[in-house]
Write a structure and sequence with these properties.
Helix 3 runs parallel beside helix 6 and helix 4 packs across helix 5. The protein has a three-stranded parallel beta sheet with strand order 1-2-3, with helices on one face. Strands 4-5 form a two-stranded parallel ribbon. It is mainly alpha-helical. 44% of the residues lie in helices and 10% in strands.
């Protein structure tokens, strides 16, 4: 199941799992703006008030840490660090669409292959810096949560101290999104 850019709460993910959904893409805000798409395709619809509404992918992942189903992260993924953030926050995989589509439209398949190759190299370098041999090792790196994302965690009862000290035996910490109002990091 894929959300359309507003994110999924832990309650929604639990309900989806109970209905038999096996994987969910939290598709948080910050990516494709589906309110704008709806405005563009409907003559008398105005959903512009929904611009920037919803939970970010990091908020959804933090909110659903103990989900019974694998979660994919998309929405607002713009660089290799966002990929690493998603994996560190527990995503089974991270999706990128807008940036890759722009690349292939502007430069063709060879430009996209070059971009993906670069991203893979950069993800590997970030993993090395964090001491993670595999993408799944990122889920054991310390995660520091700041700003509005930290406030969201406090409101939802998410223990950010546990995230910040989950490696205990490692000396490296990972600094996640510094979310502010408007969805920037």
């Amino acid at each position: 199941m894929k959300e359309v850019g507003f994110g999924l709460s832990r309650e929604t993910i639990s309900a989806l799992s109970d209905m038999g959904v096996r994987v969910a893409d939290v598709a948080g805000r910050g990516g494709t703006d589906f309110a704008r798409i709806e405005n563009d395709r409907r003559k008398h619809a105005d959903y512009s008030y929904l611009g920037g509404w919803g939970q970010s992918a990091p908020a959804c992942l933090l909110d659903s840490q103990n989900a019974a189903i694998p979660l994919l992260a998309s929405g607002g993924v713009r660089n290799p660090l966002d990929v690493v953030r998603g994996l560190a926050l527990g995503a089974a995989a991270v999706g990128v669409s807008g940036g890759f589509l722009r690349t292939v439209l502007d430069g063709g398949p060879s430009a996209l292959i070059a971009q993906i190759t670069t991203w893979l190299d950069q993800v590997e370098a970030l993993m090395t810096a964090l001491g993670a041999r595999t993408p799944s090792d990122l889920s054991r790196c310390d995660v520091l949560v700041h700003g509005d994302l930290r406030a969201f965690c406090a409101d939802r009862g998410i223990d950010t101290h546990r995230l910040a000290t989950r490696s205990r035996s490692r000396s490296r910490s990972y600094d996640t999104a510094h979310e502010t109002v408007g969805g920037t990091r």
